[in-house]
Amino acid sequence: MKFDVYGRFIVEVIRPGEDWEVYLLEPGRRARMTEVAIPSETPMDKIPYYLEDLWHESASAGKMIRRLD
Question: Contact, 1 vs 44, CB < 8 A?
């Protein structure tokens, strides 16, 4: 799942095994964000809410976290 985070950056959240992994996506680059740890018990439909909790301080008027795929 890819998410636009307040129009500031794009992340990809995947679950290759038991744990969620978060990657920062930039043109020609994909970097794991090891400082972001989504609890493994978090259901897929709650991921946007979890990201909102993490980055709400980066929000600006009229911007939101939106799923891209």
Answer: yes
